[in-house]
């Protein structure tokens, strides 16, 4: 199976897709001087963008790891997370205290893994359309399955 790398840099890729799974790098906000609410909102918006580039979205999340600089911000971060996450499809999640992130002003970093949305191929779509058009079987006889 091919490996697709998205937004490749010299040190790392922002996302890697392999075997129907998208792996995002740790993501953080652009506004490092903002509070935890803004940083979490920006981080999750960036995750939405990267998942879209990979052919997925937050309803396909499998796993999330959150690094938070201080647990005094835990409730505020969770308030943003709870508004963002798909309540019908929440991932497994861990939240870890990290006294040191890549920048002293960074309050939160989030890394997710998601499934790539299944795409209907023209062949599958044609097969479904043909099945839908098929006349119902006569009473007493079973329809043949292909």
- CATH-defined topology: 60s Ribosomal Protein L30, Chain: A
**Low-pLDDT segments:** 142-146
General form: globular
Largest sheet: 6 strands, mixed
In what order do the strands lie side by side in the largest sheet? 1-2-3-6-4-5
The oligomerization state is: single chain
Mean pLDDT: 88
- Give the number of helices: 3
CATH class: Alpha Beta
Count of discrete structural domains: 1
> Helix- and strand-based class?
alpha+beta
Question: H/E element string?
Answer: EEEHEHEEH
Number of strands: 6
Radius of gyration: 21 Å
Please tell me the CATH architecture by its name.
2-Layer Sandwich
- Percent strand equals 25-35%
CATH superfamily: RutC-like
Helix content: 25-40%
- CA distance, first residue to last residue: 28 Å
Primary descriptors:
146 residues, alpha+beta, 60s Ribosomal Protein L30, Chain: A, globular, disordered C terminus
How would you describe what is shown here?
It is a single chain. With 146 residues, the protein is an alpha+beta fold. It contains three helices and six strands; from the N terminus they run βββαβαββα. The protein has one domain: 60s Ribosomal Protein L30, Chain: A (2-Layer Sandwich), CATH 3.30.1330.40. It has a six-stranded mixed sheet, covered by helices on one side. A hairpin with a 4-residue loop joins β1 and β2. α1 runs parallel beside α2. The longest helix is centred in the first third of the chain and has 18 residues.
């Amino acid at each position: 199976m091919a490996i697709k790398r998205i937004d490749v840099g010299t040190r790392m890729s922002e996302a890697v897709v392999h075997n129907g799974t998208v792996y995002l790098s740790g993501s953080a906000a652009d506004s490092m001087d903002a509070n935890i609410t803004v940083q979490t909102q920006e981080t999750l918006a960036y995750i939405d963008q990267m998942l879209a580039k990979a052919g997925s979205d937050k309803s396909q999340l499998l796993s999330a790891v959150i690094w938070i600089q201080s647990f005094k911000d835990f409730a505020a971060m969770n308030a943003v997370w709870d508004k963002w996450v798909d309540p019908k499809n929440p991932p497994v999640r861990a939240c870890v205290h990290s006294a040191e992130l890549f920048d002293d002003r960074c309050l939160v970093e989030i890394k997710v893994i998601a499934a790539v949305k299944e795409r209907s191929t023209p062949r599958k779509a044609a097969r479904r359309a043909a099945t839908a058009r098929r006349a119902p079987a006569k009473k007493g006889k079973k329809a043949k399955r292909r």
